[in-house]
Automatic annotation (TrEMBL):
An individual GO BP term: protein import into mitochondrial intermembrane space
Species whose genome carries this gene: Anoxybacillus tengchongensis
Keyword NAD in annotation: no
Residue span(s) of domain CHY-type: 8-89
Name of a matching Pfam family: zf-CHY
Lineage of the organism: Bacteria, Bacillati, Bacillota, Bacilli, Bacillales
Domain of life according to the entry: Bacteria
Entry keywords, A to Z: Metal-binding, Zinc, Zinc-finger
GO molecular-function term, one example from the UniProt record: zinc ion binding
Protein name per the record: Putative CHY-type Zn-finger protein
Cited InterPro entries: Mito_Tim_assembly_helper, UCP017292, Znf_CHY, Znf_CHY_sf
Length: 105
């Protein structure tokens, strides 16, 4: 099982900040190569050197499905239509509003 740091409240990577039924992804932060459920968890428990994933590295695995523990590339995640391509778990479409905290878009 991949370790997810921060204020995680369950095994599906929900945290104290985002905990709806669909909040089941964690993101590997580019700056520290560590998974966190959200930008707030990274701010509270991360490296303190926030950096977003550059577009030329979107082929790297950096998104974790909390339901099946599959690591997705950023590209796979962005084209997934808010569903895990492995287990079909629904992801929160509202996360697109925060994508700029994680990815150079």
């Amino acid at each position: 099982m991949i370790e997810v740091k921060g204020n995680v409240i369950d095994k599906q990577t929900r945290c104290v900040h985002y905990y709806s039924e669909r909040d089941v992804i964690a993101i590997k932060f580019y700056c520290c190569q560590t998974y966190f459920p959200c930008v707030h968890c990274h701010e509270e428990h991360g490296c303190g050197k926030h950096a977003v994933w550059p577009k030329e590295r979107f082929y790297e695995k950096a998104v974790l499905c909390g339901v099946c523990q599959t690591e997705l590339t950023i590209e796979q995640y962005m084209t997934s239509n808010y569903r895990c391509p492995h287990c079909d778990a629904a992801f929160n479409p509202g996360c697109q509003l925060h994508a700029h905290y994680y990815f150079d878009i």
